[in-house]
Specification:
The structure holds two protein chains of two kinds.
Chain A (H helix, E strand, L loop, with lengths): L4 E12 L2 E13 L4 E5 L6 H9 L7 E10 L2 E2 L5 H7 L4 E4 L13 H16 L5 H14 L5 H6 L7 H13 L5 E5 L7 H18 L2 E6 L2 H7 L2 E6 L2 E7 H6 L4 H8 L11
Parallel strand pairs in A: 3-8, 3-9, 6-7, 7-8
Antiparallel strand pairs in A: 1-2, 1-4, 4-5, 9-10
Chain B lengths: L1 H30 L4 H6 L5 H11 L5 H13 L13 H36 L4 H15 L2 H15 L23 H7 L3 H38 L2 H8 L4 H13 L1 H24 L5 H10 L3 H29 L1 H9 L1
Helix pairs in contact in B: 1-14, 5-6, 5-9, 5-12, 6-9, 7-9, 7-12, 8-9, 9-11, 9-12, 10-11, 12-13, 12-14, 13-14, 14-15
Classes of the chains: A alpha/beta, B mainly alpha.
Chain lengths: 273, 341
């Protein structure tokens, strides 16, 4: 079976002030249809750059992609004309943003922001939906992310909502145009652990219910275990290890992976008082 | 209801500001050396005449009593007699203030109309030629003195090209009484005399342009900085990731949150514009209050000074009240926080 998303030998460098840094060195990863894949690594390992390259959000310059392919649904995104690339963005593949506090526009209501996104997504897809239809879809998606009072949330400005609610709005935003691939950038990192757990469960339920492919990008192994069945471990711009999640936790082959697992705090052993 | 409470609170504060202003300007006007009575009567007047005028003006009374007299007059809406024009200050301000108001409002309109789009363009094409051009313009506009710009425009448009009038508010001998608002454009429209509206605009163009350049540059600079600030926010990247088109992102997602700083600075600019209007009014023979106020200061025409300052103060306070309301409309965060406070 061919993967829905297949990154092959992706190399990216950044040039600033005459110096060039190799940020990705031949990264390859596959996200099959309906699979839940995690990409884990510490800060600076290149996972966000990988994600931005897939979404087509890398600022070029300073970034330069000098090798590799990003195959989505059988087409190479890197050679696709800009128009078609933009057409995919936020529709066939969309993204759950990380920071609920800063990823929503503060001066427009939730409904306004979601309907605007939907309006232009519809236009790119050649879908005909009027204002009322868009509003209905927004309310529908807000209930899918288990908002108790979607009508009221839709009327609210971001500042009127809690962090957890804003994170749900960000998930709703990603689901608006029925994507096939969802890329999640450490959702809930900015929230407290209880709320984060709820958000992750919600995300997993939605992905399973709608049969979406999920690429979860995180530095948190707990999140990996919760949300994925296949995992790639990234370090210094390279994939150092990959495998089914359960197997990788049971028998990590690389020292780096063992270190990562050992770094997870545990509630065992003695505490010296 | 909430809105009315907000307005009431702001008005109460404004009143306090105005009382403070009246004290400060009252003391300053009297501490500055020079005897108003002597200056009004000239060097040839006898000592008795001077003493007589001093007593008439209450200048022989202690300061606090003089202030009491002034505030009492103010409460009755009575600003006293001008030594210079020998008319009531009320009358003088009634005739001169509308001219300055029309000039300053037109100036602000021009500064905003061009300054904000220039700032948006500079931010949109940051570090390329439109940006460099706007930044150069902003610096030049800031360092060129208003009198120089005024003279330059006067010479260019008035004498060389002869396309625009260079003095006054209307052609001399025009028979028109602006007795509704005092603003020629508004009164012309209200009375349906469109030739007056047209002439008033022609006369306004040069002085308002001269006065607006510095503010325009300032607006462009602040709009640019604010736009760039907003462009780095996560929600701008999110909008891009969801395929919201450039144009919508620029105006809807970026400009609106970026609009608060230029708006706030605009309110503050009004103060320097009234001050700066003096130069322009002088050069373009504009019968305005700024020129009247400066003459009053040089002649120590105490009542006129106090009147001009108080009227400017009230105007400034009201403008900033209006701007606070506008800021609340543009940015719901300010509205909502204000409600909680």
């Amino acid at each position: 079976m061919t993967a829905l998303l297949s990154v092959q030998g992706l190399s990216v460098s950044f040039s600033t002030y005459g110096r060039t840094a190799e940020v990705l060195k031949g990264v390859s990863l596959d996200v099959p249809q309906g699979a839940q894949v995690a990409l884990v690594g510490e800060s600076g390992s290149g996972k966000s750059v990988t994600m931005k390259a897939i979404m087509g959000l890398l600022p070029q310059p300073p970034a330069r992609i000098h090798a590799g392919k990003i195959m989505f649904d059988g087409r190479d995104l890197l050679t696709l004309p800009e128009r078609e690339r933009v057409a995919l963005r936020g529709t066939a593949m969309s993204m759950v943003f990380q920071d609920p506090m800063s990823s929503l526009n503060p001066v427009w209501t939730i409904e306004d922001q979601l309907t605007t996104i939907l309006k232009y997504a519809d236009r790119r897809l050649g879908r005909d939906r009027d204002r009322r239809g868009r509003r209905a879809r927004v309310i529908e998606v807000l209930s899918q992310v288990r908002m108790r009072d979607p009508e009221r949330v839709a009327q609210s400005f971001p500042i009127m909502l809690s962090g957890g609610m804003r994170q749900r709005v960000l998930i709703a935003m990603a689901l608006l145009s029925e994507p096939r691939l969802l890329i999640a950038d450490e959702p809930g990192t900015a929230l407290d652990v209880t709320t984060q757990a709820q958000i992750l469960k919600l995300l997993r339920d939605l992905v399973e219910a709608q049969g979406l492919a999920l690429l979860m990008i995180t530095h948190n192994l707990g999140v990996v275990r919760e949300t994925s069945n296949y995992v790639y471990v990234m370090n210094k711009g390279e994939i150092v290890e990959e495998g089914p999640t359960a197997g990788l936790f049971a028998e990590p082959r690389q020292q780096y992976t063992r270190d990562l697992i050992a770094a997870v705090p545990r509630l065992t052993g003695r505490v010296a008082l | 209801m909430e809105f009315l409470a907000f307005l009431a609170r702001r008005l109460a504060w404004s009143l306090l500001v105005l009382v403070g202003l009246s004290v400060v300007i009252f003391v300053i006007a009297r501490v500055v050396p020079g005897d108003p009575a002597r200056m009004a009567l000239g060097p040839r007047a006898s000592a008795e005449q001077v003493t007589e005028l001093q007593e008439k003006l209450g200048l022989n009374l202690p300061l606090y009593q003089q202030y009491g007299l002034f505030i009492g007059g103010l409460a009755r809406g009575e600003l006293g007699q001008s030594l210079l024009t020998e008319r009531s200050v009320n009358e003088d301000i009634r005739t001169t203030f509308p001219a300055t108001l029309e000039l300053v409002l037109t100036t602000v309109f021009i500064a905003f109309l061009f300054g904000v789009p220039l700032g948006v363009a500079a931010a949109r094409w940051k570090d390329s030629w439109p940006d460099n051009l706007v930044r150069a313009f902003a610096i030049v506009a800031a360092v060129m003195p208003t009198f120089f710009i005024a003279l330059l425009l006067q010479v260019l448009a008035g004498y060389v090209l002869q396309i625009l009038p260079t003095t006054g508010r209307l052609p001399t001998g025009t028979d028109f009484e602006a007795n509704i608002t005092g603003l020629l454009i508004v009164d012309g429209l209200l009375k349906g005399q469109f030739n007056i509206v047209f002439e008033a605009m022609r006369h306004l163009l040069l002085p308002a342009l001269a006065l607006s350049l510095a503010t325009m540059g300032q607006m462009a600079r602040i709009t640019r900085a604010s736009m760039i600030d907003v462009s780095r926010q996560d929600y701008m990247e999110a909008a891009r990731a969801f395929g919201v088109p450039d144009r919508i992102r620029l105006f809807k997602y970026q400009l609106r949150p970026a609009f608060v700083p230029p708006l706030t600075i605009m309110g503050l600019e009004f103060a320097s514009l009234i001050g700066g209007a003096f130069v322009v009014e002088l050069i373009f023979s504009w019968p305005g209050m700024a020129a009247y106020g400066i003459r009053a200061i040089t002649q120590k025409d105490l009542n006129a000074i106090m009147g001009v300052v108080m009227v400017s103060g009230v105007f400034f306070v009201l403008v900033n009240l209006l701007i606070d309301v506008l800021v609340g409309l543009v940015d719901p965060r300010i509205r909502i926080r204000g409600r909680r406070a």
